[in-house]
Design a protein that fits this description.
Chain lengths: 90, 135
């Protein structure tokens, strides 16, 4: 696999959970565990998934579709873990 | 401050409710692991800074994995500088003072600390908050 290959996945925030405060912190902590570079897009904005201020600035409210993309050694695993975390947020 | 392996934060403000409210917000975003100490207000509970309490807080914070100190404005900064002058080399080695916006810096630093990063990584996160765009 070429080193530059980028993986992407799409996940929807639960209807009643915004990517604010506690959920955003959980998201960023999970992203920070990965070596891969990870970005998350919502509402036409793109954020570094490892930066809490970036992620908070997305203003992603409940039900928003998040497009997550990653490149790097553990990109696939990282996206899988993040997608799982997002869908299980309460 | 508890030594649980995580870098701590010291939040210093002219206002006790401001410092406490920010500590609460950071605790919510960063989770329960990051030790946070909020020091706000003057000696009489007025708006202001209390150099003695700032010094004591920095002494407590200079333990374990160390701490990053964030201040609001003016005399908060001066009181931190004065307190640093009272500390020994061993204590200074465990403290970092962030030149950062207070709210954004504390949130960014808190989340970075919660990932288990060291005191320099947490300082960097706080100071990178200077460039964060809100709009």
């Amino acid at each position: 696999m070429p080193a530059s290959s980028e993986l992407a996945t799409l996940v929807r925030l639960p209807e009643n959970v915004a990517l604010h405060a506690r959920p955003a912190g959980m998201f960023v902590r999970e992203a920070a565990r990965a070596v891969a570079e990870i970005r998350v897009e919502a509402n036409g904005r793109s954020a570094n998934a490892k930066s809490i201020l970036d992620v908070l600035a997305l203003g992603a409210t409940g039900g928003t579709e998040l497009v997550m993309s990653a490149s790097g050694a553990d990109a696939a695993e990282a996206l899988e873990r993040l997608a799982e975390l997002v869908s299980s947020l309460t | 401050m508890s030594d649980n392996g995580f870098v701590g934060l010291v939040i210093i403000s002219h206002s006790a409710p401001l410092a406490q409210g920010l500590a609460e917000l950071v605790g919510q975003v960063a989770g329960p692991d990051v030790p946070i100490e909020a020091i706000g207000g003057g000696p009489e509970g007025s708006l202001g800074t209390d150099g003695g309490r700032v010094l004591e807080a920095l002494q407590r914070a200079a333990q374990g994995s160390g701490s990053v100190v964030l201040m609001d404005l003016g005399s908060s900064v001066l009181s931190v500088k004065a307190a640093l002058g009272e500390l020994g080399e061993d204590e200074l080695a465990l403290l970092r003072v962030a030149d950062a916006p207070l709210v954004e810096g504390a949130v960014a630093a808190g989340v970075m600390a919660s990932t288990g990063d060291d005191v320099d990584g947490v300082l960097r996160a706080a100071e990178e908050a200077r460039h964060a765009r809100k709009l």
